[in-house]
Design the sequence.
């Protein structure tokens, strides 16, 4: 354990960007504070230096081959950096543009995209799923009629946890999986019980496709990736394999060999909204700026707030155990929502195919962080809470384990 004491700091951050992305052909529009309002104070610079050194040491201590981090504050990317290597035993370093799979962090993209379509009056949170999609049927025909878009996005459809996730992982298409949901006995009335889903969550893809006549991957690209300038992001296996700057996934092999690289698989590219998006830290910084309300021309703050509104209670501390001040956890639409002593933290994590990702932000404060690593480890969960504590208190002991 390495402990760093950060004292007496200001809360205003700079607009500097550590590694500007040179691949973007034109800068997307963005609503930002005036340039003169921004500067880097010494204590913030010290904190970021401390964070960087501690994060790198933590990767080494936990035998994580590589990772990347991006941090935003009030409409600016204030930090983005790659660490370690793309593949253990090789010398090719991770940088801020290196692509990782982000697993279930993909779910937030689906809910935000649904919000974009809601603003276009193509769907409604309260709309019955079956009214958009004839193939959507549940064990109880009456509940079928009652289940709304907000229920599938908040995992409260009444289906048992991970219904047919096995079929997603077996590679079946959503067109083959969705009609089978009718066979699964329900465990609750809609809206009453949180039961995490992948197959059922991905029904939102087919709803959006039916409403637009456009496939889900193309919708993501045209309405989110391209407007944000997320030039390294994609939603297919082939796109990731074509990338020349990608991290390879790793799994634990043995104490003597540690983590070893494994093949990139096609798992979850058949259910993109549940785990099929690829992205770099630099792209996730732009995504965080949207999530904290700085791209109103893409989606309004009002719609984002609807997405972040708690709809279901999380009755365990699995995802908040590293947050000392979190007493309540909920799920909104595609996002976990934590009450950090009155500070609203919107969060999600993801694991797929030897990659781990974590993203968290405070919509009110405009603070956010995303951590991507090419191994499965809880280390990002340990790192993230300290960032929000730094911006909340006058003096904080930031702990990295």
Sequence:
């Amino acid at each position: 354990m390495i402990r760093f004491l950060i004292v007496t700091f200001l809360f205003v951050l700079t607009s500097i960007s550590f590694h500007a992305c040179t691949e973007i052909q034109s800068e997307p529009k963005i609503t930002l504070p005036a340039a003169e309002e921004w500067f880097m104070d010494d204590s913030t610079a010290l904190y970021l230096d401390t964070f960087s050194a501690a994060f790198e040491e933590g990767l080494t201590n936990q035998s994580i081959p590589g990772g990347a981090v991006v941090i935003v504050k009030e409409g600016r990317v204030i930090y983005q950096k790659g660490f370690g290597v793309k593949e253990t035993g090789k010398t090719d370093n991770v940088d801020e543009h290196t692509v990782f799979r982000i697993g279930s962090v993909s779910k937030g993209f689906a809910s935000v995209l649904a919000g974009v379509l809601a603003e276009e009056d193509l769907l409604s949170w309260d709309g019955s799923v079956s009214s958009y999609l004839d193939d959507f049927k549940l064990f109880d025909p009456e509940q079928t009629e009652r289940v709304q878009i907000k229920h599938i996005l908040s995992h409260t459809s009444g289906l048992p946890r991970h219904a047919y996730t096995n079929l997603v992982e077996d590679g079946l298409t959503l067109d083959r999986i969705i009609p089978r949901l009718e066979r699964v006995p329900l465990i609750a009335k809609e809206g009453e019980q949180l039961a995490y889903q992948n197959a059922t969550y991905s029904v939102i893809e087919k709803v959006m496709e039916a409403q637009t006549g456009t496939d889900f991957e193309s919708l993501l690209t045209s309405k989110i990736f391209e407007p944000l300038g997320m030039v390294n992001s994609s939603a297919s296996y082939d796109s990731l394999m074509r990338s020349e700057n990608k991290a390879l996934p790793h799994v634990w092999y043995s104490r003597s060999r540690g983590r070893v690289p494994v093949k990139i698989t096609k798992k979850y590219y058949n259910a993109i909204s549940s785990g099929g998006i690829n992205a770099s830290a630099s792209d996730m910084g732009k995504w965080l700026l949207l999530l904290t309300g700085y791209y109103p021309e893409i989606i309004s703050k009002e719609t984002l707030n609807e997405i972040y509104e708690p709809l279901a209670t999380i009755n365990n501390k699995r995802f908040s155990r590293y947050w000392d001040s979190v007493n309540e956890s909920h799920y909104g639409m595609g996002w976990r929502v934590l009450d950090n002593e009155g500070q609203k933290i919107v969060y999600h994590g993801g694991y797929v195919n030897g990659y781990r990702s974590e993203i968290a932000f405070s919509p009110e404060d405009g603070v956010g962080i995303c951590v991507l690593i090419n191994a499965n480890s809880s280390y990002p969960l340990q790192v993230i809470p300290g960032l929000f504590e730094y911006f909340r208190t006058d003096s904080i002991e930031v702990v990295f384990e």
Confidence is low (pLDDT under 50) at residues 1-38, 394-401. The first helix runs from residue 42 to 61. The first strand starts at residue 2 and ends at 7. The domain at 2-105+233-312+340-400 is CATH 3.40.710.10 (Beta-lactamase).
